[in-house]
Write a structure and sequence with these properties.
The chain is α/β, with parallel strands linked by helices. Helices cover 31% and strands 24% of the residues. Bound molecules: adenosine monophosphate.
Length: 510
């Protein structure tokens, strides 16, 4: 393979040559850009990067709303060999200050409303440009000026497979956010594994409602659909009305669990409405078995749940053909090796929970400017995911929870997911989160935080009595609390650290 072909963008360019006038991006109003047009737009973004002095390997930090232009900018960075650094639009200015200092970007592209603050915090050698949600801003002025002049189009920047394509900051609930270093080869390997696993095709249309500052919306969904030659119908964000309106034009939908619960809460979401979609995929947080079951009842389709992370892309998936089971994330994707080990690194017996460690071509090389993490986050060449998992004798994986969410009460390990599944099965429960909080006697006490269905008379005693018949005594919650909703981040993950903080004094205060 030549150098240029190791640049991940070369794969998009190949598809563009093949698909030509076929639709690539489709907007909600029906306007579409062909593959040829998207490829030309990407070339213009790459040329604009070069024109302002962005060199291969330079970081381009981007905190903007999702738009066709923002995605062309992403692909333009790949094409020019720059390192794309996407940032959650929810990050505040003081958080942004940290990311700019850590990533050391050559260029920052931000919302016009942020431009003044960013100019104030970035050094004189950093260029700042703006891009808004409608796809305009002074960044686009530079791009348009170049787009009319084909003479600016440069070849795809040659890259080695191991060269950096992106730095993805993990959400980092504790301590500083870490930048996962993702290479061109990492992205190519995961895209190929996904196309194989889900058999994506060039007549697929993905309804894209996910944010594009996160790997789910940026890498997983875009790469798999586009490199299969399919088209992406881009919604600016998840919105039930918009999803319902566009769903009949789609064949594939990808979402976080909340998207599915919100669709199910709307009576207009019916079997007919979902009928053109051949594949509903879910991930980024655990899908409740109750949601899986209600979805099947309503639509006749079984959601395909998969598991992945910023550091490795998608790692396991339920099968496309074969059984999709609730509460399970299926089997390793092609190229991945998995092991489940105890504290000493010894292999766990089938079905016994332990730390999930992985190896494979899409696993990150390390963390940006954090060489010390190489020895804590990797063990003998295996990446330590931080997730506790079980695996059946025939290889099916289930995620039990984050290791840091494990509760150790009176010396016994309590896996929150096991308790949550029991609680969620009780009538009247919407959802639940089980956490450990400091306890003077047990070290940590199991506490259940529950969202009840409206108007249900479920109380603490009732929950404890029902659980008492199903769970060993040491696993039983010491307290059951009721809330209107669980704290979640933008990717629907329950923020257990927030809950732990909220209830830290529960036993201390008597
Ligand atoms: P992120 O890097 O933001 O994508 O977060 C990755 C983490 O999300 C994983 O380490 C898991 O803890 C969690 N996660 C992703 N998919 C699933 C899933 N299907 N079930 C349970 N947890 C998941």
């Amino acid at each position: 393979m030549t150098g240029a072909s190791q640049n991940f963008y070369a794969r998009f360019a190949e598809v563009a040559r093949r698909r030509g006038a076929a639709d690539c991006w489709i907007e909600p109003d029906g306007r579409a850009l062909s593959w040829t047009e998207v490829d030309a737009a990407v070339a213009a973004h790459a040329a604009a990067l070069r024109a302002i002095g962005v060199q291969p390997g330079d970081r381009v930090l981007v905190q903007v709303e999702k738009s066709v232009a923002s995605l062309a900018l992403y692909l333009g960075c790949l094409r020019a060999g720059a390192v794309f650094v996407p940032l959650n639009t929810a990050y505040t200015e003081s958080e942004l200050r940290y990311f700019i200092a850590d990533a050391g970007p050559r260029l920052v592209v931000c919302d016009p409303l942020r431009a003044r603050a960013v100019r104030g915090m970035a050094g004189a050698d950093v260029t700042v440009r703006t891009l808004d949600r409608s796809g305009s801003g002074d960044w686009m002025e530079g791009v348009s000026a170049l787009a009319v002049d084909a003479g600016h189009v440069q070849p795809i920047e040659p890259r080695a497979g191991g060269d950096l394509a992106a730095i993805v900051y993990t959400s980092g609930t504790t301590g500083r956010s870490k930048g996962a270093m993702v290479s061109h080869a990492n992205l190519a390997a995961n895209a190929a594994a996904l196309i194989a696993a889900w058999q994506l095709r060039d007549d697929d249309v993905l309804l894209h409602a996910l944010p594009t500052y996160h790997v789910h919306g940026l890498f997983v969904s875009l790469h798999s659909t586009l490199l299969a030659g399919g088209a992406v119908l881009l919604l600016p964000k998840f919105d039930v009305d918009a999803v319902l309106a566009q769903l009949p034009r789609a064949t594939v939908f990808m979402g976080v669990p909340t998207y599915y619960t919100r669709l199910l809460a709307d009576a207009r979401f019916t079997r007919e409405q979902a009928g053109s979609v051949r594949l509903f995929i879910c991930g980024s947080a655990p899908l409740l078995p109750a949601t899986f079951a209600r979805f099947e009842q309503r639509t006749g389709q079984r959601i395909l749940e998969r598991y992945g992370m910023s550091e490795a892309g998608i790692i396991t998936s339920n099968p496309l053909h074969g059984e999709r089971l609730p509460g399970s994330v299926g089997y390793p994707l092609q190229g991945f090796e998995l092991r489940i080990v105890d504290d000493q690194g010894r292999a766990c017996a089938p079905d016994a929970p332990g730390m999930l460690e992985i190896r494979g071509p899409s696993v990150l090389g390390g963390y940006w400017r954090r060489p010390e993490l190489q020895s804590t986050e990797f063990r003998d060449g295996w990446f330590v995911t931080g997730d506790l998992a079980t695996r059946t004798a025939e290889g099916r994986v289930a995620i039990v929870g984050r290791a840091r969410d494990l509760v150790i009460s009176g010396g016994f390990n309590v896996y929150p997911r096991e308790i949550e599944l029991e609680i969620d099965a009780l009538s009247g429960v919407g959802e639940s989160a089980v956490i450990g909080v400091p306890h003077p006697d047990f070290g940590e006490a199991v506490v259940a935080v529950i969202v009840r269905h409206r108007g249900v008379a479920l109380d603490e005693a009732g929950v404890l009595q029902a659980l008492g018949q199903r769970l060993a005594r040491f696993k039983l919650p010491k307290r059951v609390l009721f809330v209107d909703e669980l704290p979640r981040n933008a990717m629907a993950k329950v923020q257990k650290a927030v809950l732990r903080e909220t209830y830290a004094g529960l036993f201390r205060d008597g």
